[in-house]
Amino acid sequence: MSLKRDFLFMVLLVGSEGSGKSYLQKRFVRNFFSLELHPTTGMHHAIKNIEVYEKNVQIQIWDPPGREEFKPALASYIQRFQSILLVYDITDKSSFEEISNWYSFVASNRNLENLSFFLIGTKSDLKSSRKVSFDEGQELANKLGMYFMEISGNNRHNLDTLFKFMCGILVSQKIENISAKIQMKLLKRQKRKNTSWF
User: From CA 183, how far away is CA 132, in angstroms rounded?
Assistant: First the structure.
């Protein structure tokens, strides 16, 4: 891949503490996985470069603490992100039940227009410990109007697919916006050219 960067997208992971946000980030960016990860204590980010539609895309993936007391600080960051992933643990029903609260938090601090929104169920490899069904996740995603996927940081199930799909959406939106701006400029130029001064 060329060193030239075509697009930069900032991605925010939000969800309750222990939902698997840090596993997701570290596995995707560094291919690192450990069950001994400690709870996130600050606003950490990692960078990954991928190719989508023959475009070089840099993704900044931000992983804030999932604790309630960190929300006021997080609110000041939210406008910066093009994509937000609402993350829960499929083996922890309470983390799933908190998703609606996280969605409301995001919606109250950011315009949702042109935001790529995903609901992500982690630990899909732990099927025998599942407390939230796939259908429950899909139903909530449909209700909130967002994409849905289950992933695993352990065996990388759907991990690369998730970010390729997400970046595909963001690149398409960016290209459409650029095209619309060019067309608007051309239209204004044509109107000036056709203006009669007589």
Answer: 47
